[in-house]
# Entry
Amino acid sequence: MVESKWPLIPVEEAKAIIRAHVRPLPTVEVRFEAAQGLVLAEDVHAREPMPPFPASAKDGFAVGASDTTEWRRIVGEQFAGYEANIRVEPGTAARVTTGAPIPPGADAVIMVEFSEVRDGYVRFTRRVEPGADIRPPGQDIAGGQRVLAAGTVLGPPEIGLLATVGATTVRVHRRPRVGVMSTGDELVEPDEQPGPGQIRDANRFSLMAAVREAGAEAFDMGLAPDTFEALEAFIREGLERYDAIVTSGGVSMGERDLVKPLLERLGTVHFGRVSVKPGKPVTFATVSGKPFFAMPGFPVSSLVSFEVFVRPALLIMAGWPPDRVERPRVPVVLDHTVRHTAGRTEYQRAVVRFERADGRFHAVTTGFQGSGRLLSMVGANALLELPEGRDTFEAGEVVEALLIGPLEAPSRREAEKRV
Amino acid sequence: MVESKWPLIPVEEAKAIIRAHVRPLPTVEVRFEAAQGLVLAEDVHAREPMPPFPASAKDGFAVGASDTTEWRRIVGEQFAGYEANIRVEPGTAARVTTGAPIPPGADAVIMVEFSEVRDGYVRFTRRVEPGADIRPPGQDIAGGQRVLAAGTVLGPPEIGLLATVGATTVRVHRRPRVGVMSTGDELVEPDEQPGPGQIRDANRFSLMAAVREAGAEAFDMGLAPDTFEALEAFIREGLERYDAIVTSGGVSMGERDLVKPLLERLGTVHFGRVSVKPGKPVTFATVSGKPFFAMPGFPVSSLVSFEVFVRPALLIMAGWPPDRVERPRVPVVLDHTVRHTAGRTEYQRAVVRFERADGRFHAVTTGFQGSGRLLSMVGANALLELPEGRDTFEAGEVVEALLIGPLEAPSRREAEKRV
# Structure
């Protein structure tokens, strides 16, 4: 009896091994406009308070709040962007626009909606308290305040904050550069017509898309050469160029499965089989300190393995806080029987929705869950995690789900329509 | 008393007006590798079945399932990628690798793990049923089957499917090209040191990032000129170049707020005020059939208005199915009192998590909710939608939330640790 030399290890052990071997990439300085999706490697502080001066929150009139004069003389206008040379004395008011500095002497703003102007005088239909519609200096940001902490992923509001405080160059972790290749003598390029025994390569393209979706840069290494020597040169070159390599295929027990033996020669194979379905032969190695992720060749196996094992690793390399790299997990009610064999942790593709009627998450799988059936991933927003210890789950039972896409959550209106 | 000429309309009415005026952009043919994130404008069918031939699902031996010979002669090997000239007769077996075509005469595969080889012969420690570990033609995709429907957003598995079926050129909706500009005399570029009464522009950069996050292309139009004539020329040029324009500022009631009067002259202003907080002066117009979204000038107002009004519109322009452009909505329990004034629908920024202990979503707001405090959006994964009709909500009450980022959902393990 032929046995794999690689012990089957549990999913969580495999994930822990990967985590122990990947670390954030070095930091670089980039312009803030180019930093979207990257992770701050330093705290960012505001030099000045925001707003930097007492600013009008509305279009209207700057006044003395305690002034009881009915018709007040308009002493001038203070638009935004400069400091007009005007002063608000009792019996006067100044026009102000949103964002304008409050002229000296004024301590409140009355909205234009509550004003009546006649012959250079204004009266108001409403009284206001001192401070009304004035944004005091530092209301939004105190001078010297830390506005963003190291480890923050830079999205739209964070990019805006960098602009606000003038942090136009920021230190971030480098975006991981990931080389992606496919192995398999049966593979032809998508533009080619497959001959007998051949199929088109799909994994390289879906994995490159998944790498990009994880915020990393994907590089197409092409189809691997089919001899040990050529493959070795090919991989060595890739390791020089990229921060990590993701391959698919070549990790089964066939004689032509060159990847594991080659990785053993080049570096250290940390695991070669995981008790997971799909994706049992998934392999993780480091070569010269760089992570090498070898996915199985079946299209679903490669994408699910990427999701479970590679994506969190790429986020850690990109500098994400380790507690944010995993997908959200929720308990879901199965809407139908789900067949499962007890031997391995199984990830089934499913659509998970939040059901207002019972306040619970519900899951429907995406049909036949064959490892080759990429269609089972189309439209899926979740992976159901069926544990090793037991078999088939009945409708109504609760399992864990990883949310890999936006939740289906009908609005209250839609939910009401259904009833 | 000065009144805005624009009626305050409800949020849902404003959203309906926008929907009535935006439509999917024209379609273009693109290479499948460049189609990530775009939306299919045509159904895609498979020409051939997948797998195209009976294929081995494992590394092992192709056999006759009913053959009872103990030691079978190995007649050859069938690797993946070609058709070997071998035939499996009773008393024989052929080596096969994963993905290899099944040689004629064989009707099952026995995994290498259950084989023992000696002197060119093999015996097995396990019997199998006919069909075992053979993937029949069409198991994953039937010949002629529609694999992707028009309206599908192309992510990693869909890109892989396009490769599999050889659909290397696909018709998709064009990615929206969106010009983004800021107006406001108080604004200086982020690299500049603001003078008296000035602040740095943040909105243009946060809005461009939000445009990109919505899958569209963002173009920096810069700071708007401050005269009516110059602004008109500027906007006309932008409308020629881009599919839509997003501005911020210049929509209040100040005399220098040129955007609305200009839009009235250039095209049709469909609404000029919405009963929403933040973002009351948000404005929507069409000029020569192109949508023009004028966001308010406060940083939070502009980003929240973008989220509520612009993002769904850009997705519709990109060809997304209308029922998928809104964010998921869930009911959340407030963990603390939330102040709200009854007059308008208010969107407060919050962190929403799913709590296993009571099986409900819980929300904590992100601190002071001032319209200028961009920090209130940092780390927020939800907008709480507080309705017009009533004021302050107490801790424990349930409100609606729009999930704008991944849910916080501690794993079962983490949840257990907390107890």
Summary: The first strand of chain B starts at residue 27 and ends at 31.
